[in-house]
């Protein structure tokens, strides 16, 4: 592989604006006031908050003391979108089932995709893997416009039943919601990691196995053709090379 002599990575900053919560954390056990008394609840929907814990201490018997959802400081524990969520949405239009038995016989198609080249993957059956050249941080909200919302769900006992067959009744639940949001995140693409695809266990993290030079040359041609569909220039070439009798693949 030719040594990188120019730009080794592309670093970037992302500012993303929106409205509402993108990345929920699920039901969270808290304490709230019901009929003038503090009572524990476990049907409060909480978004992902950086550094937040719902426990503020413990009673003498060791049981945890829970916080009240109305008292969250969103500047100290800001809303964020996790890296996994960002990656999911970036590549969701190109879904690849890595558990499928057919994937083993179509590894060349996997490498000729944004998932194969940029997102990275691990095939559980064969343990083939490719490390993603794309690094991302979590996206953190800057506006801190959080809200505590108490809600009610009502249903007529005469008109319907729940999935379990019981009659519907009025129930209360709550959410920590957000209005306008503005996230800041950072990312980096490693040029060296992007250009190198290992095809040998000698280099670890073998992306796929090839049996001959001819198979490697065919794979190099497929990847070259795929990259040309993405690039604005035809001056693109992927090739297979050997060094010390080890197979490797350079872009």
TrEMBL record:
- Regions of compositional bias (Basic and acidic residues) in chain numbering: 155-166
Protein's UniProt name: Uncharacterized protein
Region: Disordered, residue numbers = 148-171
Fetch the InterPro entries from UniProt: Cas7fv-like (IPR049889)
Top-rank taxon of the source lineage equals: Bacteria
């Amino acid at each position: 592989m030719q040594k990188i002599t120019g730009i080794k990575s592309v670093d970037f900053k992302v500012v993303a604006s929106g409205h509402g919560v993108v990345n929920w954390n699920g039901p969270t056990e808290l304490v709230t006031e019901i009929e003038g008394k503090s009572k524990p609840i476990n049907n409060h929907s909480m978004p992902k908050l950086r550094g937040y814990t719902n426990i503020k201490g413990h009673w003498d018997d060791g049981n945890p003391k829970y916080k009240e959802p109305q008292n969250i400081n969103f500047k100290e524990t800001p809303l964020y979108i996790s890296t996994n969520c960002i990656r999911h949405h970036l590549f969701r239009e190109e879904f690849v089932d890595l558990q499928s038995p057919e994937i083993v016989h179509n590894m060349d198609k996997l490498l000729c995709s944004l998932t194969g080249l940029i997102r990275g993957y691990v095939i559980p059956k064969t343990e083939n893997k490719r490390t993603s050249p794309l690094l991302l941080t979590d996206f953190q909200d800057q506006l801190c416009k959080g809200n505590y919302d108490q809600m009610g769900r009502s249903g007529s006992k005469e008109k319907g039943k729940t999935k379990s067959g019981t009659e519907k009744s009025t129930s209360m639940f709550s959410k920590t919601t957000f209005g306008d949001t503005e996230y800041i995140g950072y990312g980096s693409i490693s040029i060296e990691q992007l250009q190198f695809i290992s095809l040998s266990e000698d280099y670890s993290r073998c992306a796929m196995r090839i049996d001959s030079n001819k198979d490697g040359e065919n794979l190099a041609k497929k990847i070259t053709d795929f990259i040309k569909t993405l690039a604005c220039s035809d001056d693109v070439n992927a090739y297979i090379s050997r060094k010390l009798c080890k197979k490797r693949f350079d872009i």
